[in-house]
What does this fold into?
Amino acid sequence: MGAMRPLRELHGAVVVSGLEVTVIMANAMVDAYSKAGRMEDARMLFNQMSIRDTVSWTSMIAGYCRAKRLDEAVQVFDMMPEQDTIAWTALISGHEQNGEEDAALELFEQMLGEGMAPTPFALVSCLGACAKLGLVTRGKEVHGFILRHCIGSDPFNIFIHNALIDMYSKCGDMTTAMIVFEHMPERDFISWNSMVTGFSHNGQGKQSLGMFKRMLEAAVQPTYVTFLAVLTACSHAGRVSDGRRILESMQYHGVEPRAEHYASFIDALGRNRQLEEASEFIKGLSSRIGPGTAGSWGALLGACRVHGNIEIAEKVAESLFQLEPGNSGRYVMLSNIYAAAGQWDDSRRVRALMKGKGLRKDQACSWIEVRSAKHMFVADDMSHCEANEIYEMLDKLFDHMHIVVDSVKDQHALY
It folds into this structure.
C-alpha cells in the first residue's frame, strides 16, 4: 500500500518496546520502506543490520530499481559478499523495466558467464528486453537456451511461453509466435491477448479477428486490451461494420469502452472515407469523455491527410489545437496536408505558428539489427562509431542506383 504513517508507527512500536530486531523483521522493514519509496530510510536500516542475508541485499537492489536509481542498485549488487541468482534477477529485471534494455541483456550475459543458472523471471526480463529492442535473433538465442535446459516447467510454463509470444509478436515473427501458442499445454487470457494484439499490430487483421473468435469460443473473458487490438485490426482491414459491432458488444462482456477504443473505430471510419460520419461520431462523444476525444480527432486528422480533405482537416485541427496546444505533431500534420495540396503559403503559415509557440517536431529515427546488436540513426547522424564508412557505402549505393537508372532509360530509348 505504500502507507508511511502505519509503517512508521509499527517501526516505532518495535523500538519503544525493546523488541530484538531479527534478520526477518529487519528485512520486512527494509522491504516496506523501499516499496513506500523511502530509500534513505531503507538504506539506514540496512546499514544498521549486523547480519544480512540474500533477502536483505535483494530488497535493497529491488528498491533502488523501483526508485529508478539504477547506479545505486548496481553499487549494492557489487557490495554483496556472494551474488546469487535472485540478486542477478532483481538487477536484470530492474534495468529492463526502467528502459535500460541493452544493460539488461549485458547483465544477463554476465550472469551466464558467471556460471549462474537464470531464473524464469530473469529469462522473461531478457525476452522483454529483446521485444522492446526488436532483437529477434537474440530472442531466438534465449528461446534456444530455454529449450536446451528444459526451463519452463510448472508453474512457470505459461509465464515463459507468454513472454516468448510477446517477443516474437513485437519482432514481427507471427509464424513462430503462433507455433509457440499452439504448443502451449495451457493458456491464460494473456496468451490469447498477446496473439490477438500481435496479429493486429503486424497488419494481419483477418488473423487477429479469427484469434478473437477462437478466444470467445474457448470461453476466455476478453479485456479492454483485447478489444483495442481487435478494433485496430478492423481498422487496418477496412471492416467498419465489424468494428461497430465489436464496439457495441464491449459492455456485454463487462468492458467499458475507453477513449482509445473510440479512436480506433474513428480510424476505421476514416480509412473507409466516412469522414463526415466520423466527425459527427466524435461530436457525440465530447459530452461523455471531453478531453479524451483528442485521440479520436487525431485519427480523423490522419484520415484527412490520406484522403486530402482540407476542409474537414482545418476544422479537426482547430479542435486539436484547443485540446492539445503543446502537441507539435498536430501542427506538422496540418502543414503536410496543405503541402500535399500545393497550398504552400498555408503550409508555411502553420509551421510559423508552430515555431512561434516554441514547439519542435520530435526527431524520427531508423534502426537495424546486425549480429544481435541494435544500431539507431537519425537524419544527418554522425554519432555512430562507423559513420564515415556507412556514408561512404551509401554514396557507392547511390552511384550504383544512378548507373542502373541510366541503363534502364537507355534501354527504353532503344524501343
